[in-house]
Amino acid sequence: MIARLAALCAFAQSEDDPLRQLRPGHPRIILLDSDLDRLRAATREIPQAKQLYAEFEKECDRLLSTPPVEYKLAGNRLSGQTRRALERITTLALMYRISGRDPWLRRAVMELNAAANFLDWNPGHFIDTAEMTHAFAIGYDWLFNALTPEERGWMRDALVGKGLAPGLAAYQGMSAQNEPGVARVAVAHEPAGRDAAPGPQSANRMAVARDSGWTRDRGYWNVVANAAMAMGALAVADEAKDEAAQILRDALQSIPHGLSNYTPDGAWPEGLYYWEYATRYACLLFSTLETTLGSDSGLSATHGLDRTGRFRIYLTGPSSRVFNFGDSPEELGAAPEMFWMARRYASPAYAWSEAKEVVRNPHDDSYDLVWLDRDFRPPQLPGWPLDAVFHAAGIATFRGSWEDPSASFLAVRGGDNKIPHTHLDLGNFVFDAGGVRWALDLGPDEPPPVASPGKPRPAGPRAVTELHNTITVDGENQDLRGEARIVRQEF
C-alpha cells in the first residue's frame, strides 16, 4: 500500500517543478477570498455557524487584553505554547477576514511577532515545530494583503528559518537513510525573524537531522509533520521557491508512510485521539493542495480515507462519549475534518456528527466554521447499520439507536498490543445506557508518557491489564506482543 501511495506522489511530481500550478497571490491556503461571502451567509442562516461566530467574537475580544505566547518548555515539549498560538492565530485571522475588524488583525500580528522571536520552535520534538509552522502558514497567507512589507518579511523569515529549515534537515536524514553509503549531514540554521536571538539552541536543531524518524513513521507524527511542512512551503512558495519546492517533494514522498496506517475499513489502530490528530492534518493537507495547486493528485481517494469518518461515528456513543481505549479521553471535542470529509466523500452523516458536537459543546475551533457543511443528516438504515466491526483494528460496536441519547451502546476492543499508544487491554469494553457510562475506561495517564515516532511508548500506570474491563490471569499483564482477532460475528 505504501508503494501504491508513493507512486501517486511520484506521478504528482513527474514534472521538474512541483509548483508549476501554484495559484498566484494570497490568500490561497484552504480559504480563498471567493469563499468569504459563503461564510458570511452561513453565519446569518445556519444556527451552528451563527453560534460559532458568536463564540469566536467573544474569544477575539478577550484576546485583545491577553498577553501573547511565551517560550516555555514543559519537559522537552513546547506544545502548550504552539497549540495556543495556533488556536489564536487561526481564529483571529479568520475573524479579521470575515469582519475586517482592525483590532483583531493587530492582535494576530502581535501573536505572530511573539512566536517569531522564539529561540526556535523546538525541532528536537518536531511535532511542536510542525504546529507552529501550520500557525505561520495560516497567519502569513490569510493576512498577507493587510500586512506591511516589514511584517511580511519577518514572518517569512521565521517560517523559513524556524519551520522549513529544520524540516529540510529531517528530510535530508530520510534521503540519506534511503541511499546506502551516503553520509547524513546535520544542517543547523540560525533563528530567523525580527530581533531573533543567536543560536544557543543549535544543538536542538542539530538533533532534527540526526533523528528523522517521523519521516518514515507509520503514525500520526508523519501525517501531522508532513502536512504542516507542505502548508508552510506553499504559503511562501512565491518568495522562497527553492525551499518550498524541495519541501513539497519531500513531504509527498514521506506522507504515504503515515497514510498507510488507515486500515481498508477506515480504522486508525492507535485510537480516536490520534485518529483525530492525524485525520485533521490529512484533511488540511488535501485542502491546501487543492486550493494552491488545483488538485491533491488523488491522495484523498486512497486507502480507506473515504470510510474513516465512519470510524469516528461508530466509536462515539449516544451521549457523545467515545470508546476511549488506549490514550484517548472520553470527550474528544471538535473534529472539523468531519465537515470537510462530508463534502469530499458525499456523506451527510459525517457532517451530522460534527454539527451535533458544535451544538452540544461550542468550542473555539476556526476550521469548524471554515469547513461547515449545511447538508447534514443522521445515519440511515440500511447503509448505516446499528452495529459495526472494524476487523483490521479488532473493534466492534453495537447501539440501540442513532438519535436517542439514552440508547444503549457497547464497544469492544481486540487488536494488537504492539500498536503505539495502546494499553494492555485486549478484550476491554465500555457500556452506556440511559445517558450513563456504566462500564468505563480510565483513559490516558496525565500527563501521558512521552514517546518518539517509531519507538515503543513507555508504559504508564493506567496501561496495566487489571485496570481495564477484561480478564486477568494471576494478576499478570497481557503479553506485550499479544493479539486478539475478531474471527466471527453475528448481528
Task: Provide the descriptors you would attach to this structure in a database record.
491 residues; mainly alpha; two-stranded antiparallel ribbon; 7 strands
Structural description of this entry:
α5 packs antiparallel against α6, α6 (126-143) packs parallel to α9 (220-235) and α9 packs antiparallel against α10 (241-259). This protein has helices at residues 2-12, 36-45, 47-63, 79-99, 102-116, 126-143, 149-178, 202-210, 220-235, 241-259, 272-293, 308-314, 337-344, 348-360, 366-371; strands at residues 388-390, 395-399, 409-413, 415-416, 429-433, 436-439, 483-484. The longest helix is centred in the N-terminal third of the chain and has 30 residues, at 149-178. Mean pLDDT is 88; it is low at 10-14 and 180-210. It is globular. It is mainly α.
**Structural class by SSE content:** mainly alpha
Secondary-structure element order, N to C = HHHHHHHHHHHHHHHEEEEEEE
Strand order of the largest sheet: 1-2-3-5-6
Model regions low in confidence, pLDDT < 50 over at least 5 residues: 10-14, 180-210
Helix content percent band: 40-55%
Number of DSSP strands? 7
Shape: globular
Helix count, per DSSP? Answer: 15
- Percent strand equals 5-15%
What does the main sheet amount to?
A: 5 strands, antiparallel
- Measured on Cα atoms, how large is the radius of gyration? 22 Å
Cα-to-Cα separation, first versus last residue:
31 Å
Rounded mean pLDDT is 88
